[in-house]
Design goal:
This protein is mainly beta and 173 residues long. It is built from one helix and eleven strands; from the N terminus they run H-E-E-E-E-E-E-E-E-E-E-E.
């Protein structure tokens, strides 16, 4: 018989909480494998960039966008205070972007998921985004935090490294 008085606790919630703590402990002990961007992402799609300011450096073949930078590629959005665009070097690579280096309040949104960090590097050819510095990933009501998030946009998977912490909502809430 289950007590119904003040202070009675539903055993299901206790078990869910204990399981969540166990999963958080496992995640904290190792890199946590996660799914990211339920929608598949095509890194060959055109990249649109808007910002308050643009500076081009012909010497090293880069462009630096500053102030309210917003980058869009398909359904994915990346925003930051500062983004340096590096281009592929070589005769056959006119205008091809190699990688984007974002810093200053970086936010990456893909589908219903969002990640925040201090910095991010998006390697276009591999479709990989590496976010570092106080990383927070939200997936619905669940949240993960760590030192480094590596997302493979082609497969929609990622790994959270560092001191990984998580909050899991039982019952799909």
């Amino acid at each position: 018989m289950t007590p119904k008085g003040k202070g009675a606790v539903d055993l299901r919630y206790v078990l869910a909480f204990i399981m969540a703590l166990g999963l958080a402990g496992i995640a904290a002990a190792q890199g946590a494998q996660i799914a990211f961007g339920g929608l598949s992402h095509d890194s060959s799609l055109p990249i649109e960039i808007s910002a308050d300011q643009l500076a081009v450096d012909q010497a090293d073949g880069s462009a630096t966008f500053k102030g309210n930078v917003l980058i869009g590629q398909g359904d994915m959005r990346l925003s930051a205070a500062h983004v340096r665009v590096e281009y592929v070097t070589g005769a056959d690579s006119t205008g091809q972007i190699s990688r984007l280096h974002a810093s200053g309040g970086v936010t990456l949104v893909n589908g219903a998921e969002a990640a925040e960090a201090r910095q991010a590097v998006y390697a276009i050819a591999s479709g990989t985004v590496v976010m570092t510095g106080d990383v927070i990933l939200t997936q619905g009501a669940n949240a993960l935090s760590g030192d480094k998030l590596t997302v493979n946009l082609s497969s929609g998977t990622g790994t959270m490294d560092g001191r990984v912490k998580t909050i899991l909502q039982p019952g799909g809430q």
